[in-house]
Write a structure and sequence with these properties.
mainly alpha, 80% helix, elongated
Amino acid sequence: MSFLRRGKSKVKTIRSDSKLDLQKGMDASRVDREKSGETSTLPLESSKLTLKEKITRLEERLNTPETRSNPPNHITVIRNLAKGYMRLGGREDASYYAKAENLYKQFSVLYPLHIEKIDWIAWIEASAKARLIREARNLLAEARLLFPGDEDLDEVETKVLHIDHAKIDEST
């Protein structure tokens, strides 16, 4: 047990003798870089990307070997890309809803055990907004089996019904 006592005393003396010289050196070098005009990071204005730029980057990453070999990373890319498609569908073109719905289908085939309730809800909404009402209702029935009595699914069902009635009204 004497070796534990020596270890503790050495740690205490090292900590008590240490000073913040490293931090002072880092601050000084940052000030020198700022004076010379060099920056270590990108400015905030240039790091902000538009939604379309983010989507194109995610599309590039979607099927790369590095992304596909790491399932959690691939799942994250699929989710973020589908969310981006849903946003673009609301802002610009409704065809993005079909792309989001297709991504969720791929997600369910590739990683069926990793689909969460949020994914089910987004998938149902994407199907309904892509005018695939029958598909949305089938997904809703399947989600009800997985999550019985869930209030979020009731809200999604209401949205699907509203979209369905709007579709019927447009056709008449």
